[in-house]
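Discrete fold record:
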Amino acid sequence: MTAQLLPLSHLKVLDLAWVVAGPIVGRVLADYGATVVRVESSRRVETARVMGPFPGGVTDPQKSGLYENCNAGKLGLTLDLSSAEGQGVIRDLAAWSGVVIESFSPGQMKRWGLDYESLKCIRPDLIMLSTSLMGQTGPYSSFAGFGNIGAAMSGFQNLLGWPGELPVGPFGPYTDYVAPRFSVMALLAALDHRDRTGEGCWIDVAQAEAGIQFLAPEIVEYAATGHIVGPNGNRDPDMAPHGVFPCKGGEDAWVAVAVRDDAEWDRLARLVGGDALARDARFATLAGRKANEDVLEALVSAWTVVRTPHAVEATLQELGIPSHVAASSADFVDDPHLQARGHLLRLPHPLMGESVVEASRFTLSDTPGRPARSAPTFGRDEQHVLAGLLGYGEERIAALREAGVLV
């Protein structure tokens, strides 16, 4: 599949985003053929470059696995955005691309004179997507932080944990990975609108608001009953047993099991405790299983703990009962389903030999996406971007370099 045949091969994008929530948007567009220019600074190194993981555990901002995964397929240019000359290059890139993605703190782009209203004067049909924690307006717009703060503001941190204990929250910066899914769809809709009307727009994505969309049941429950949903471990109000159970193989060996109805419980009961458990009236209905959940989970745990996670998974899936290994990083890499779908890709890399990144988040039947190159090292595509895309002459490029702008 050549880039010319990909559905977004006509699209040009200026990517000024940091860390995860913004860069993932540009990554999706690049997967499907868009020419995405990623602008950053080697002096003020962006956070993803120092988060890793790193080959051999040795920190190197040019070898970060997180950065590679979020920026594969893009072209790279280093630039001092605080300088007038650097801001001039951004204006030229905005005019060239017509699409800008940014994730600076609200107000920063305006302070540089690079906000939507300013850039629209250069490119009237400009589409700008700004992604931030709390949005560009409102009393909390100045709050800065990552997706863990977004998860707290949207209500997730208080939902995950054990009753009566401190909240645990979802693993990692949760809304950093939720918001981009909304951003991609909003940006594609804006592109469609521009194709039909010639009009651009400014898209304001708030991570917290994107996260709230996944809490509709809890919000409706509160609106209808006044009940505030709290943490309940791994249990579910409509399924039992429902949890993660210990297995043979050490303290990190666990398997997830979810029983959705009485028929599935009957099959699991006969497996775990034979006919006697299947006939036990305490567990015959969901209400009974919920009322005796501590005993129920102890019975299931006694059965799983002498078996490996993979053995439990295979046995229960064969019976039509949802179950899966609580996967480690090694399990993820070795997963036969992900391997069959080609979920992990190896791309040539100038410093590491190769980098490993996830494949496209979705697959189109006729035009499957794939990153064309590894994520950029600092300034890797400087000549191509400045001379090839913007048409700068060698003297101008040399002047920028001498002035310390291309850093």
The CA atoms of residues 100 and 128 lie 5 Å apart. The chain has two domains: 3-213+341-402, 242-328.
